[in-house]
UniProtKB/TrEMBL annotation:
Keywords for the protein's UniProt record, in alphabetical order: Cell membrane, Membrane, Protein transport, Transmembrane, Transmembrane helix, Transport
Location(s) in or outside the cell: Cell membrane
Any one annotated GO CC term: plasma membrane
Membrane topology: Single-pass membrane protein; Single-pass type II membrane protein
GO molecular-function terms, A-Z: transmembrane transporter activity
Transmembrane segments: 23-45
PANTHER family given in the database record: EXBD MEMBRANE COMPONENT OF PMF-DRIVEN MACROMOLECULE IMPORT SYSTEM
Phylogenetic placement of the source organism: Bacteria, Pseudomonadati, Myxococcota, Myxococcia, Myxococcales
Protein name, UniProt field: Biopolymer transporter ExbD
UniProt-listed InterPro entries: ExbD
GO biological process terms held by the UniProt record: protein transport
Family indicated by similarity: Belongs to the ExbD/TolR family.
Length: 141
């Protein structure tokens, strides 16, 4: 009888080991997928509107509420990644200034875009009440 009790106790011990679930591999897989998503998301966003920025040796960083205005080489205007007309750009700029007086505009113009088109975009943004703006550049190495 002693041998039966010993055998039964061994089986009860095995049942206690299986009662827990190890989630460490699941967490590892989720973290790897999160990192892959974060890295690929930056490439997806940057390829949305292709602009060849001019280079400059000295450039600063802007912080605060900003309007991202992009002017492509064919003259198309994008505001925060959405194609807009000049009228829509002016209306959205006025809305942003109404919410925050310190609104800034960062204008990214393709180096092949016409100077007159860049000046026109600056004029539209300033006419909407944005008093602070910057020209986006690519820093020279």
């Amino acid at each position: 009888m002693a041998s039966l009790a010993g055998g039964g106790a061994g089986r009860d011990g095995d049942d206690d080991l299986i009662s827990g679930i190890n989630i460490t591999p699941l967490v590892d897989i989720v973290l790897v997928l999160l990192i892959i998503f974060m890295v690929t998301a930056t490439y997806i966003v940057r390829e949305a509107i292709e602009v060849d920025l001019p280079r400059a040796a000295h450039g600063g960083e802007a912080t605060g509420t900003t309007l991202a205005v992009v002017l492509t080489r064919d003259g198309a205007i994008y505001l925060d990644g959405v194609r807009r007309t000049e009228e829509e750009l002016a209306a959205r700029s006025r809305e942003a200034v109404a919410k925050d007086q310190g609104t800034r505009a960062i204008i990214s113009a393709d180096r092949a875009s016409l100077h007159g088109a860049v000046v026109r975009v600056i004029d539209v943004v300033k006419g909407a009440g944005v008093s602070r703006f910057a020209i986006n550049i690519e820093k020279e190495p």
